[in-house]
Design brief:
461 residues, alpha/beta, five-stranded parallel beta sheet, 17 helices, 15 strands
Length: 461
């Protein structure tokens, strides 16, 4: 250990831009055992590890780094899979620069350990070696229903099944995974990775009910009567509005509608052909990871040009620096300090441009973030054949919530006891984006895990 003075940080190899923009395959290669061991050997084994504390799941990062440095893959696999429901997913999609790697002690002059890549290596190598997470089978007479198969739902199911509790999961789509399947493109997360985890849960006793929207295809009360507890993890998929003229034009699209349809296309399923953007000028409004996903997807779909409009500067972008860098490499054009004011329409009512005003960042507000100020007389236009709005998401509020005494707050988030994750209706729990608003996969996984632990304590005490 502590080889940081001799060994520099290395990032995993990436496929060449000219190759990777031709398809939707993952762009990063998985570390081999020597690369993973070399990076792990740089860890200084802090007494109070910042990486562990910054991780929402509090993963045993120093411990599994030590195990990999010592070539003990089996123990590292067990350590990695204990607090995390799907570490190979987190290793691919977490914004490590803002979490574990961002707080690595070696950032001060040496470069953080490539924690996320080692995390991916551990589980991928572990699966190849024949290791699997431990599940006891269904050993109790308790049954829990999980509504939604996204990160929060899959996490809750994982820990309930580890306790021998039977789980039935209801998913309105035709595939499990939620955001992991239909929201995150293949070039960041191959869907075989998600499918493998779902299969493991099914082998552990999960009953998966697809194409079943609660409140439409099956009544909430029916599910409640057949189970001892319920967990709601329906996510947040309602697109936020920009509140500008022209945004309802027929060729102005919502980010998740676009990503979902292109994923359906990649699955070779029926999709809406209006989302074929080949040879078109595409403008994406927003600066988060979902915006980056749209931009990079449009490049792979053969768009003539792909432009991102963001009202602040590069340093203030909410998305991962890694994803911004990848988008730049792949030929996306970025226009910073530019706030959209109106979507310009032609005589047929279709968008042809975005009216933009230049901005500047002024004094900091109460939260410490610089205020955005418009520059008078600085309006200009960006031509567009299609516009994608990627401004964040709010929870969709199903009617079955109020009908069953489950209260929501002013913006539609489900109100829960933040210690137990129980809603205002006893025996019903919730977590993930439907509780906290659009956030990270890792925070949804945390909510699902902690809610499952509360359910377990309630049912098996």
């Amino acid at each position: 250990m502590r080889e940081y003075l001799k060994t520099e940080r290395i990032d995993p190899a990436k496929r060449l831009v000219v190759d990777r923009t031709k398809d939707f395959g993952e762009i990063y290669e998985v570390f081999d055992k020597d690369e993973a061991a070399t990076q792990s050997d740089r860890c200084i084994q802090c007494g109070d590890p910042f990486c562990l504390n910054k991780c929402p799941l509090h993963n045993y990062i120093p411990q599994w780094l030590k195990s990999i440095a010592e070539k003990d893959l089996e123990f590292a696999f067990k350590l990695s899979n204990e607090p995390s429901p799907f570490p190979e997913v987190m290793g691919r999609v977490c914004p490590h620069d803002r979490l574990c790697e961002g707080d690595c002690t070696l950032n001060d002059g040496h470069g953080a350990i490539t924690i996320g890549s080692v995390e991916t290596h551990i589980t991928e190598a572990g699966f190849k070696a024949g290791y699997t997470p431990d599940f006891p089978g269904i050993t109790t007479d308790k049954k829990v229903a999980v509504i939604g198969s996204g990160p929060a739902g899959l996490s809750a199911a994982t820990y309930l099944l580890r306790s021998g509790i039977a789980v039935t999961m209801y998913e309105k789509s035709d595939r499990a995974g939620g955001l992991l399947t239909y929201g995150i493109p293949n070039f960041k997360l191959d869907k075989k990775v998600v499918e493998r985890r779902v299969k493991l849960l099914e082998e552990a006793g999960l009953t998966l009910v697809l194409n079943s929207e609660v409140g439409r295809d099956i009544e909430f009360e029916t599910i409640a009567n057949e189970h001892d507890a319920m967990f709601i993890g329906v996510g947040a998929t309602k697109a936020k509005s920009a509140g500008i003229a022209g945004e309802n034009a027929p060729n102005v699209y919502k980010a998740m509608d676009y990503l979902t349809n292109i994923q359906r296309k990649n699955f070779k399923q029926p999709y809406d052909k209006k989302f074929d953007f080949k040879d078109l000028n595409v403008v994406v409004i927003g600066g988060g990871d979902t915006a980056m996903d749209c931009l990079r997807t449009a490049k792979r779909e053969g768009a003539k040009s792909v432009t991102c409009l963001y009202r602040r500067d590069e340093k203030n972008m909410p998305g991962s620096k890694k994803e911004y860098k990848n988008a730049m490499e792949e030929g996306v054009d970025f226009t910073f300090l530019a706030a959209p004011k109106e979507i310009i329409l032609n005589e047929e009512g279709r968008a042809v441009a975005v009216e933009v005003v230049k901005t500047t960042l002024g004094a900091k507000d109460a939260s410490g973030r610089q205020r955005m100020e418009e520059v008078k007389g600085s309006h200009f236009r960006v031509n567009a054949d299609v516009v994608i709005m990627s401004l964040g998401f709010d929870p969709v509020v199903p009617s079955f919530l109020a009908e069953n005494g489950i209260e929501t707050n002013s913006w539609g988030g489900i109100i829960v006891n933040e210690e137990t994750y129980e809603t205002t209706t006893p025996g019903i729990y919730a977590g993930g984006d439907c509780f906290r608003g659009a956030d990270l996969v890792v925070t949804a996984a945390y909510d699902g895990r902690e809610a499952a632990r509360s359910i377990i304590d309630s049912l098996l005490q």
